[in-house]
Amino acid sequence: RTINDQFVAVSTCQLPILAAGGCQEGGEMRFQQIKDLMLYLEQLHQQQGRSYGRLIPQVDGERSRMLLAYLQGREDAAAAHLHDYREQMGSGVKETWLDQGFGVDLLADCQCLALPAGAQPDEIVTLVSRQEEKLVGELGRLARECPTPDTAALLASLASMAQSRLTRLVHGAHRLDDL
Q1: Within the chain, where are the H helices?
Q2: What does the alpha-carbon distance between residue 6 and residue 77 come to, in Å, rounded to a whole number?
Q3: pTM for this structure?
Q4: For residue 116, what are the contacts with CB-CB under 8 A and spacing of at least 6?
Q5: What count of Cα atoms within 13 Å lies in the side-chain half-sphere of residue 130?
Q6: Which pLDDT value is given to residue 174?
Q7: Residues with Cβ < 8 Å from 17, sequence gap 6 or more?
């Protein structure tokens, strides 16, 4: 997908401040741009992929390991897609200022993912679904709170893409159960 320059309008939405160890919410009003949000989302998917890869040797079941390997590849693909998406954005879109933030540190959440050795695929899907629902919720909230329609549409589109990924995951997990 390509984002065109229709999203040039300046918005007021604050995002978490990116730091070396993840992100942190600033106490005072701090500004960032759409390009920072896109980079944060890309980093989030990269971290989720690493977390799923880390969990593979920790679970006993073959199906659970297969699902985690699939999830790792899925997150790597999502990160690459967001990277390409960000690269295709016009400079006017990338430079749009935001002053709203995520209410949840999603990077820290995915770094703390843990599963018991006997985790079943349905437990893994539940864990992943919770993570995805947080992302969809935060993007949707930002879209609703943005005062400019163009920026709200961009954020709503990102939330919709995340929701579609979640729906495909749940359907795919049900197909795995049928095998």
Answers
A1: 34-55, 62-88, 91-94, 106-111, 121-145, 149-178
A2: 26
A3: 0.79
A4: none
A5: 9
A6: 76
A7: 23, 24, 25, 26, 30, 32
Could you identify the residue written with the tokens 């049900």?
A: 174
The residue among 132, 106, 112 whose CA lies nearest residue 15 is 106
Paired with 98 in beta bridges are 32
Cα separation of 98 and 35, whole Å?
10
Question: What is the residue type of 30?
Answer: R
Q: Which of 43-57, 93-107, 159-173 is modeled with the greatest confidence?
A: 43-57
Q: What is the pLDDT of residues 114-141, one digit of tens each?
A: 999 999 999 999 999 999 999 999 999 8
Task: Write the CB contacts of 148 (distance below 8 Å, at least 6 apart in sequence).
Answer: 9, 10, 11, 12
> Which residue do the tokens 């106490």 mark?
27
- Rounded distance between C-alpha atoms, residue 87 and residue 72, angstroms: 23
At residue 13, the 3 state secondary structure works out as coil
Would you state the structure tokens that stand for residue 15, as one six-digit string? Answer: 């995002």
* φ, ψ for residue 28, nearest 5 deg: -90, 170
Tell me the pLDDT tens digit for each residue of 6-17.
Answer: 333 333 333 333
